[in-house]
Amino acid sequence: MFIDIKLDKNTPVYIQLKDHICELILRGMLRSGEKLPSTRELASILNVSRNTVINAYEFLQEEGFIYMEKGKGAFVSDVKVNFQEKWTVDWSSHINNYAKASEELDIIKHETKWKKGMISFKSIAPDESLFDVEEFKKSFLNRISIEGEKILNYGYAQGYKPLIEYLFKYMSNKGANIEDKDILITNGFTEGFDLILSSLTEKGDKILCENPTHNTAIKIMKLHGLEVVGVDMEDDGVSIDKLKEKLSKNKIKLSYFIPSYHNPTGVVMSVEKRVEVYKALKVYNIPIIEDGFNEELRYSGAHVSPIASLSGEGNSVIYIGSFSKILFPGIRVGWILADKKLINYLESVKRSRNIHTSSLDQAIFYDYLSGGNFEKYIKKARKVYKEKYEFAVECAKKYIPFNKLFGEGGLHIFIELNDIKSREVLEKCYEKGIIFTPGDIFYTDNRGYNTLRLGFSRVSKEDIEKGFKIIGEVIKNKI
Amino acid sequence: MFIDIKLDKNTPVYIQLKDHICELILRGMLRSGEKLPSTRELASILNVSRNTVINAYEFLQEEGFIYMEKGKGAFVSDVKVNFQEKWTVDWSSHINNYAKASEELDIIKHETKWKKGMISFKSIAPDESLFDVEEFKKSFLNRISIEGEKILNYGYAQGYKPLIEYLFKYMSNKGANIEDKDILITNGFTEGFDLILSSLTEKGDKILCENPTHNTAIKIMKLHGLEVVGVDMEDDGVSIDKLKEKLSKNKIKLSYFIPSYHNPTGVVMSVEKRVEVYKALKVYNIPIIEDGFNEELRYSGAHVSPIASLSGEGNSVIYIGSFSKILFPGIRVGWILADKKLINYLESVKRSRNIHTSSLDQAIFYDYLSGGNFEKYIKKARKVYKEKYEFAVECAKKYIPFNKLFGEGGLHIFIELNDIKSREVLEKCYEKGIIFTPGDIFYTDNRGYNTLRLGFSRVSKEDIEKGFKIIGEVIKNKI
């Protein structure tokens, strides 16, 4: 019985022994009151040191699985394990519509999956090989030495104070007025957007956004039961005429925009349009949620201030920031900059959802940012991504017969084909080892059948060329 | 204008200079086309190295704030910042009932606040001085060296695979059958519970739980619009008679229990009662959410298996685990063990909420746990907390005139007074520098006015004695 134990190399032996005996007891193979072998005996059977067995027995005693009798040895405790009665619940009858919709709209589960050896243009995650792990390590060690074990205990729902201070300055440098504003740290953009919709909308409300727009945002809006009113995009942002038309015809509650390096088109909304959008929404008093997505990845042109900066001391814009498309998305840190009173509510909602964002991650991030590493990193990343972006555009022009190519930067390009279904193109490409994101998932009104998004951040130049060539050939065969 | 810059010691000078010039441009104090001082000139004005100025100018150029003309110098870009139009939104008219309720039920905002110098019995967070920071550091460095920068990029919604494997084994060691089960990593218990209610309930549904129970759970149930049906507690768990009565009189959708070191009473539900509860709920086919809270903090008695173990190969119990009351709550890692099909839905809901829990934190946690550190730590922590627990009980008996004292372990004791309002006691104690948690917040039906919870995990023995003495005196003056 004891000899059955299979030892692995990575776990201390006494823990494996403890776990094994624990299992024997729970399975009823060692019964209440039964005597265990002496530590000496078991050590010799298993060919381990006696100390190993003593350690294992001590833990089993601590955990209430065995008890010791002086001079007599170790015995199995009165662990009651005999009762077991199978009870099967049909969960499908319990799952509500929200969870069902979450699953249905979960593209990771339902879209074409990458297989080993394929070239994937699906991802717009950053290229991790650009991450400066050494500086990250330093920041960890630095924060641990400054904060000590405190940083591993509970923190504040609003966030890690030094990080909040840093971000205030960061936002101020972008031109945002921080008077009477506050910042809430979130688990990335996704949580930020979800918290805002949870707090400001009711089922059936109408929300206005660009069309196409970020597919995760569409998913979250739909999951909140909102009616999504999309406004067509032009080369320099939404069409102002169409925006005004939609505003006059609908009772809109909230609006959502990605003014810089818009996902999926990559369009940067011009300064003039930012002002027009702002003014148009002001007329109807419809607050703006601004997604700062990829704002940092500008490759050319003069600095463009976020819409948040237009409101001055006003409070009509809720800005959601995140570095996740550039830096360390795995640690899930983003933020919301908004009116102080609004943040007060969002903070309570955040607390009721998950108490707070990992203090450790916030502290490391703060240390990394405040040490000036971000500026160094972004310089390097911009250079690499800009080169790749230009190469991707060049390859697209050379190999892919398109109607229109969108995008001024970021980590992807967006292509509109002539009258060809991109999902059919994807099917053929898949056979040839290439995948990409069909553009229809970004549309609010089932259009975009002839569009596709090509993310290049994690694809080598060689593979970009190879992949685009194949995509181009598939399309040519369809014309 | 340039001389105004105030330099601090913690940020690289070129970044401070860049930020300063950026501000001047955004405030319109440096206008489009305006020439900046030469790098040599500015270096001499500011008494910094010329390289510092060159670095700052390079970044400003990168970010589109200035442009360089060969042989002529640096000029301000066409950054359009003139438009600003204050627009004030009355957010209070936009905040929905859910967010309002979140704020109202947020006890951190509305309960008596700790002030410097006070003795606080409010917290049941672990004592961070017990944390083994050195081992934590090692785990970080180890994981970073194994996983590299990959761990800082996006991960899986379900969680970090090695951690999931570890927890499967951990749950199996507790007696849970893992056949056809799966695990979802969450941001602690709070998120786990919220995800489950989000996926399985509708507004107006009835949920059954112990009364009193964990106040955060009550808050989340209420925020989901659920009707909370509480069942009175006895010394060994809920009253089975009352449970059966409530079950026969109500159409219950789900149930929630904290069988071990129940919050707030500290009661451990007996094995016999676990079986009776399980059987009673099986009759009505009402699934059980089991909160594994503090299960690890047993100080005496034989091992008691979780309710999850009673279902065998069945799937009727959803187990929520978290080490947060023992270890590293600041990193927010918990888990749900449940039916595979159910986890599939919960995973999609999790993805729609915040994509995934920090991969870095999960990886460090995994490394720490699998290295056997948890066993070492829990041994130390149990010893310290047990001693404190016994001391707290001793002091309570000595100084506080109570009707009943609850609890067999954990990080707190729960006291029922004779006919005295604990909030009035709190008011007086506050004046004397002592705070604690009034017990009414744990009740589902506005009872418990004469109860209080005393958390001792972060209070020294000296302060426990001092504090309990004062609480006792205040109560005596009220009798």
UniProtKB/TrEMBL annotation, chains A, B:
It comes from Clostridium aciditolerans. GO terms for molecular function: DNA binding; DNA-binding transcription factor activity; pyridoxal phosphate binding; transaminase activity. The keyword Manganese does not apply. The keyword DNA-binding applies. Residues 11-79 form the HTH gntR-type domain. Keywords: Aminotransferase, DNA-binding, Pyridoxal phosphate, Transcription, Transcription regulation, Transferase. In the C-terminal section; belongs to the class-I pyridoxal-phosphate-dependent aminotransferase family. PANTHER family: HTH-TYPE TRANSCRIPTIONAL REGULATORY PROTEIN GABR. This is PLP-dependent aminotransferase family protein. It comes from the Bacteria.
